[in-house]
Design a protein that fits this description.
It is a single chain. Helices cover 53% and strands 24% of the residues. It has eight helices and seven strands. The chain has helices at 2-6, 11-17, 21-64, 67-75, 83-88, 172-198, 206-222, 228-240, and strands spanning 99-107, 110-117, 120-127, 130-137, 141-149, 152-159, 164-171. Helix 3 (21-64) crosses helix 4 (67-75), helix 6 runs antiparallel to helix 7 (206-222) and helix 7 packs antiparallel against helix 8 (228-240). The chain starts with a helix and ends with a helix.
């Protein structure tokens, strides 16, 4: 080795020039790994597209046309089970209301879907006679606390008027996503309100920009541009910047 270094000999090139079988084997293995990675990426993209198409068929054309609803449904661990609520969301949303998170959960003994928007926290309980809707404006939320229990958890929401609401049996992934997004949304409203009272010309709080960027990532994920892994990685990077 010292002789090779002293004479500036490229050992790898020398082995390759000598048609060494080990070099050929290593090259073949590297090519096989690259092909496997490409095939895996193609399969993942195809699976993502199938997921998107399947959910779009379930929720119908009105909801499928809403990028925010599709992104929230695709990002949720229980989005496929919430399809009937997602289908009716266009008729429940207010003007300018954007959906961030949807998740299946319990409110008391009622099984339904919790929906976080940029204006409200909703709980939609499907019934034979229609849908029951419980709403809590974000401006009325004082505290948020998520508790994880193995694979499921509880999100406890306390309102300014003393009301305490608990969304139970949330999937772990949904609880983490809902807890983070709700804290960001409520905190953004509080900081924006304080800034407005002190100086009306102050621009919106940075965290609202983060929410907007996350929503855009969700749209890219819904469109199939980003895989689920890429979406989660970029979302985490945005949250870590706060």
């Amino acid at each position: 080795m010292r002789t090779n270094d002293a004479q500036d000999i490229d050992v790898a090139a020398a082995y390759e020039a000598a048609n060494d079988p080990l070099v050929a084997w290593l090259a073949d293995r590297e090519s096989a790994q690259e092909r496997a990675a490409e095939d895996r990426a193609v399969r993942e993209h195809a699976a993502e597209q199938q997921h998107i198409d399947r959910l779009a068929r379930k929720v119908g054309p009105a909801a499928a046309a809403r990028e925010d609803i599709m992104a929230a449904g695709l990002a949720s661990a229980t989005g496929d089970r919430c399809w009937s609520v997602l289908k009716g969301l266009p008729g429940l949303l207010l003007g300018g209301e954007q959906v961030f998170v949807v998740a299946e959960c319990f409110l008391g003994n009622d099984l339904g879907t919790v929906v976080l928007t940029n204006q409200r926290l909703l709980f939609v309980h499907p019934k034979f006679s229609g849908q029951e809707l419980y709403t809590l404006p974000l401006a009325e939320i004082r505290a948020v606390a998520g508790t994880q229990k193995v694979t499921q958890g509880v999100l406890r929401v306390e309102a300014l008027r003393g009301l305490v609401v608990e969304f139970g049996r949330l999937k772990g992934e949904d609880l983490a996503w809902l807890d983070e997004a709700l804290r960001l949304a409520v905190g953004s409203l509080g900081r924006t309100a304080a800034a407005s009272s002190a100086a009306p010309a102050v621009p919106a709080a940075p965290s609202q920009g983060v929410l907007d960027q996350i929503a855009k990532l969700g749209e890219l994920h819904a469109a199939g541009v980003l895989t689920t892994a890429e979406f989660e990685q970029k979302k985490r990077q945005l949250l870590d910047r706060l």
